[in-house]
Write a structure and sequence with these properties.
Blueprint: E1 8-12, E2 16-21, E3 24-31, E4 34-40, E5 79-81, E6 84-89, E7 92-97, E8 102-107, E9 110-114, E10 131-136, E11 142-145, E12 159-162, E13 180-181, E14 184-189, E15 192-198, E16 204-207, E17 219-224, E18 229-235, H1 238-248, E19 262-265, H2 267-271, H3 275-288, E20 293-298, E21 304-305, E22 308-309, H4 322-331, E23 335-340, E24 343-345, H5 351-357, E25 362-363, E26 371-373, E27 376-380, H6 386-399, E28 408-410, E29 422-424, E30 431-432, H7 437-455, E31 465-467, E32 470-471, E33 479-480, H8 489-504, E34 513-514, H9 524-534, E35 541-542, H10 561-588, E36 593-594, E37 609-612, E38 616-619, E39 628-632, E40 639-642, E41 648-650, E42 654-658, E43 666-670
Parallel strand pairs: 13-32, 19-20, 19-35, 20-23, 23-28, 28-31, 31-33, 34-35
Antiparallel strand pairs: 1-2, 2-3, 3-4, 4-18, 5-6, 6-7, 7-8, 8-9, 10-17, 11-14, 12-16, 14-15, 15-18, 16-17, 21-22, 24-27, 25-29, 26-27, 29-30, 36-37, 37-38, 38-43, 39-42, 40-41, 40-43
Helix pairs in contact: 6-7
Length: about 675
Amino acid sequence: MKFHHEFRLKNNGGTFMEFEADGVTMRLDFFDHILRVSMIRDRQSMLKTWSVAPSGVCPLNGRDKLSQEGFVTQTPAVSENEGSVQFELDGIRFTVEMLNFRITAENEKGILYQDRNGLAYNFENELGDGTVHYTRREEEQKIFGLGDKSGHVNKNGRSFELSTGDAMGFRADYSDPLYKYLPFYICANKAGSYGMYYDTYSSGRVNFGEEHDNYFEPFNSIRYEEENMVLYLITGTPAEIIQRFNAMTGGIAPVPQWAFSYCGSTMEYTDADDADARLRGFAGQCEKNGIRAGGFYLSSGYTQIGERRCVFHWNRDKIPSPQDLSDYFESHGMKIMPNIKPAFLSDHPLYDTIARNGWFLHYSDGSPAVFPFWGGMASYLDFTNPAAYAFWQQCVKESLIRFGYQNLWNDNNEYDVHDGDVYACGFGRQTKARLIRPLFSYLMARAGREICMEEADYGGDLPFMISRCAAAGMQRVATTWTGDNYTDFRDLRFNHYQAMTMSLSGFAFFGQDIGGFAGPKPGRELFLRWLQYGVFTPRFVLHSWKPGEPSNMPWLYEDLMDTVKMIFDLREKLVPYLYEQMNICVKENMPLIRPVFLYEPGYDTEADCFMCGSEILACGVFDEGCDSVHVRLPAFIEKWKLRGEGATIKGGTELDVPCTPLDLPVWFEKA
């Protein structure tokens, strides 16, 4: 009966339990500090996962969402009372009410987690289509995570789309959606903290108090299109939750040391008719100004045919010899990361071949699905088709690796597919493409990493892959960045909040386009403040596209080069520390930069300072006209030193430190 579902315990398998009512199975799996909750309407229609991989490896064709392989399972003692079941996991008491299957988790401080009263799950579409889940909400709760979401660090009181898009010029204080798909968040309340990860790729919406319903208690909610639901309830402190989430999704791939050095990037150079000369000129400018660069992001202008960008095509008028160009950069100690895109314009030289083989996402009649893309109509490669996957790898090998391009920049891979009549091969199980959009970005990056590791010669080094779109599990194969941001002081501040949000989502290596990708040329003060901040972020890249304006390059303001070089020299001094800390992050499944409150509960969640690794406190200046930094030194470290020098300062001390745009940034080192 609608709104009234009497569940009964059908199977107690020790490490799992299954309950049934009205054709729906609710399953609980017991792992170390993790309770997996699954609502199964139709087992045969349940999609696979490529995000969850506790062993670090996921089969190319996906993993059964209900698999326990790789997890540390538990077998709790279960007691049955009239109308409920009780058990304990890792010191937390769980009660499952049989009526409408309501879960409550309690500790010594009170209710840690609870499903909403009345009805929390969408058993018979009482709550609409697809998956719907409501949980109890405390007014003063704090919400962290969800990927690259905009606004303040604490997302309580807001709602967000579960989706991705090409959000060029986004505003970091309010734009939504952006480039990442991550239905993972941490909720901190009076009783402690818990994490929630919904194992899906389908679009939807999450709400943390923006929506109210007079007939129910205050709630958090999530809605998404996929019919079956699998969620992971993760317990622990916020830091432990992040570690467990990253471990559950397969961990973090190591990053080569050169990637921590400054890397150049601009669309201006590769869009120019004399691209080869402009690119070589970058190396010359770096040497002229005494700037060490580890690499250069090669924007897509190198693939142009007329005004169109055709992936894997080298424009030989712009770059006569791709091999000579890569050799030139290599001789100057720099790597090149060429930009590649997963969509093929309808007039691309390879389009007919791909279409004839059925390697594109397609309509129900089998014809290639088409979408607006970079000034024309294009079709997306279907990476769930094994033949298309192999074709992409062959293109990477023949067009890039053989010319010395062994590190890849995966771009424009958000797969803007909303039409329900567009299908993917699904590794032999035809699937609506809109249900698995973020999966294509993961498979694209994975395909590139695999072929590079197989065919390229890194001389004992590591491959470097970066992807604009990312979902859970992407860190196994690629790094990321925050996409095409906007140039403004307010956006600098909210880019910092966005960085803390990504950190709390588990991302380890990432950063912004320093100076802002879109919008006006950064003013002198903003340019220097962004450099002062960015020097402590994992990815240190200036990148922009500002038609009619010069690009964001270190020499944007020639009269500021002394200050700029001072900041760049600081970054180069930090590179060994950042590399060492990143290797620790890989082992510990932690982000490289992180908010202070992960170490010191009660510290301001919106603080302007943050931890860079475990031993540096970085303090940004995000307001125009400000000439000092106010900071309370975290007390979890007993003694600090300002910029690593001078007298020690006791943790917990509050102080103001002068800092003009012409100064080195403010940071403190563990003494």
